[in-house]
Amino acid sequence: MGDVRTEPPAAHLVLDHHGPDPTPDEVTVLITGFGPFLTQFPINPSHEITKLLPTTILPDPSDPTSPRIRLIIHPSPLPVAYHPVATLVPTILSAQNPDLVLHLGLAAGRNYFALERSSVRIGYGRNKDVLGQRWTDVDSDRQWPSHLKAFTEGDGKLCSYPDRLATSLPFEDIWRRWRALCADIEGVGDGPSSSATFVTTISTPTPIGVAPSATSTSRPWNRVDVRPSDDVGSFLCGFIYWTTLAWFWARGQQRQKEEMEKEDSGVQQSTTQQQQQPPASTEDEGQRPVLFLHVPGCPEERDLQRGKEITVAAIRAMVASWLGQKRRREKEQALAV
């Protein structure tokens, strides 16, 4: 367990006395949801919520720095199947090249919405997917070799993945913003864990063929709450989150490699020239602008509508926090010159 603390005020930053920071005209966010995976949920609410989302979220009129947000909503539900997801998700990411990614998935047995912080490389062989297949640790080692089983590329450098990856977005700040935005949504109230505390003891989402408990999502609730979590589970929710985190991580590694090759080949400017100019941008290095949102069962239309509003709030929080993070980096780079 660990406290979720909001980021401290940026009092140490140089203030811009020429008005608000400029904001990009548009920020793109890729959104996905899953298809059915339990007999109790023949229609997965995660995809049903994505279908209700607008294609554009207009800037907040009270915030002059807020951008227009364009949602790239994957039109069909992703199959709850390991191997198709492992192939399809990198293809979608490469084709769309979004600024941010938000995956939605159902957590059977939970009656709250939760933003997840991280996911792991191995451990997905426990439950079969809807195709009756498993994703073993051997599959993970082949797809994302660890530092213990790294392979050697042609240039002799090791290529390896860590065993856990977390979002590079300011998670605590997003959680604070999300909770504040959800305060005005009807039926959303503080639950026992909606204070600034991580949920780390939630069990793995119910696997295929296992009925959820009688107290789970088979009926509507009077109120739901929103929570931060670091327990995405070891089924397809954790798997798709890891797959996307790993895609961004590998892209950052590749860009670092390309920069090193430029240095080795002497393409970059001389040391004297480099000292006279700002350092090269490292914005993309190590950046994983991804989050996963666990949603509860939504048995009625009003539950889905509420889920849509909660998801829009999460998207607004992600974008605002991401832009704040970018501005801080730019100011820090400017001060370092």
UniProtKB/TrEMBL annotation:
<keyword id="KW-0645">Protease</keyword>
<comment type="similarity">
    <text>Belongs to the peptidase C15 family.</text>
</comment>
<feature type="compositionally biased region" description="Low complexity">
    <location>
        <begin position="268"/>
        <end position="277"/>
    </location>
</feature>
<protein>
    <recommendedName>
        <fullName>Peptidase C15, pyroglutamyl peptidase I-like protein</fullName>
    </recommendedName>
</protein>
<feature type="region of interest" description="Disordered">
    <location>
        <begin position="257"/>
        <end position="287"/>
    </location>
</feature>
<dbReference type="Pfam" id="PF01470">
    <property type="entry name" value="Peptidase_C15"/>
</dbReference>
<dbReference type="InterPro" id="IPR036440">
    <property type="entry name" value="Peptidase_C15-like_sf"/>
</dbReference>
<keyword id="KW-0378">Hydrolase</keyword>
<keyword id="KW-0788">Thiol protease</keyword>
<dbReference type="InterPro" id="IPR016125">
    <property type="entry name" value="Peptidase_C15-like"/>
</dbReference>
